[in-house]
Amino acid sequence: MTSFADLKLSEPLLRALNEEGYTTPTPIQAGAIPYLMQGRDLLGLAQTGTGKTAAFALPILHRLSTHRHPAPARGCRVLVLAPTRELASQIDASFVTYGRHMRLSHTVVFGGVGQGRQVDAMRRGVDVLVAAPGRLLDLIGQGHIDLSTVEVLVLDEADRMLDMGFVRDIRRVVSMLPKERQTLLFSATMPRTIAELADGLLRDPAKVEVTPPSTTVEKIRQAVMFVDDANKKAATLMLLQSPKVARAIVFTLMKHEANKVAEFLVKSGVSAEAIHGNKSQGARERAMAGFRSGAVKVLVATDIAARGIDVDDVSHVFNYDLPNVPESYVHRIGRTARAGREGWAISLCDAEQRAWLRDIEREIGQPIPVFADHPHHSEAAKNSTMRPPVLGGGGGRGQRSGGGGGQNRSSSNRGRPGARRAA
């Protein structure tokens, strides 16, 4: 499969892809789209940043463009479930981008904002509804949404939805859908809970796996710094002041810590914004807009944003706190090295998080190189015999593994500021 034209997508879709500069499908797109065009159920295992949104959006849009009929009032033809507001918004935006030459009706439903516009959109019915499970069930309960006509169900980032406790919500939603439907489940990892969910939802599914579950993207250079908790803010500032850091995400474990780190960075002269579940939707959207435009250099986020940030040119991810769930490490660092670029993931580890570090290294199947030659290192660094990597740009000695893939583009798009991949 060498081009999108080989996938036999409809002309309006090929025109939109050409205008975006997308010429060659990524592995998940080349693997999944032919099955989905045949109407098969599908289990897709792919890391973030590999182009899986287009892998399901394009064949769905092809179906809508070649089998035209209006969605019923309060209903939808396609339902996409996503774990976070940010991811839901980005999926909706991708449908708009690829379907720009179609007469596509769509809306996105999530909490944290007033429901008036969402109710108005659903009153007329839409082709594509992208929703977070909580608000969706709320609007169903109020009688504003009817799922009895859904033709295609997509569960995106299914493992994240289960991590966030949405399994009962998902099962409630599925119980309201027609039995005759096409079902797509995408996940970055394949724990037992996902296998059980897939067994209950999918009928004779095709399986497309482009990288082994829980491995890290090939182009991400990783390092860990042993830093006492009291020195983490100073160490983070030191790292961010490197000229190699163009745009960065700093992950914290707690919401209040994200606020404190962002405030410290701003006082230190670094443009930074915090984003987490306690922020209003308007504040989160403003923070993301500033980050995408470059007005904000650093986004300080909790794990709610680990899969909801789709910005190609994030040069560095810093784990101010290591995650206490090993799979979350993979999703966090997947925010860098997107669309074929290289990136850095540097973690600060205090004494209490050493066990979490060991769990992460077991999860990714490799040790993370230790960087001990820095002014804030703790005594824990002396326990490592590994050579430190060179922090910064190309030429570092961070470990590599896995096999992520960015979107290939036509030569006219190479080097163009803001050029994007098929997300």
From TrEMBL:
InterPro entries: DEAD/DEAH_box_helicase_dom, DEAD/DEAH_RhlB, DEAD_box_RNA_helicase, Helicase_ATP-bd, Helicase_C-like, P-loop_NTPase, RNA-helicase_DEAD-box_CS, RNA_helicase_DEAD_Q_motif. Residues 2-30 form the DEAD-box RNA helicase Q domain. Pfam families: DEAD (PF00270), Helicase_C (PF00271). Coiled coil: none annotated. Keywords: ATP-binding, Cytoplasm, Helicase, Hydrolase, Nucleotide-binding. CDD domains: DEADc, SF2_C_DEAD. A motif (Q motif) lies at residues 2-30. Residues 370-423 are annotated as: Disordered. Residues 33-208 form the Helicase ATP-binding domain. It is an enzyme of class 3 (hydrolase). One of its GO terms (biological process) is ribosome assembly. GO terms for molecular function: ATP binding; hydrolase activity; nucleic acid binding; RNA helicase activity. Its EC number is 3.6.4.13. It catalyses: ATP + H2O = ADP + phosphate + H(+). GO terms for cellular component: cytosol. Residues 219-379 form the Helicase C-terminal domain. Residues 391-407 have a biased composition (Gly residues). Belongs to the DEAD box helicase family. This is DEAD-box ATP-dependent RNA helicase RhpA.
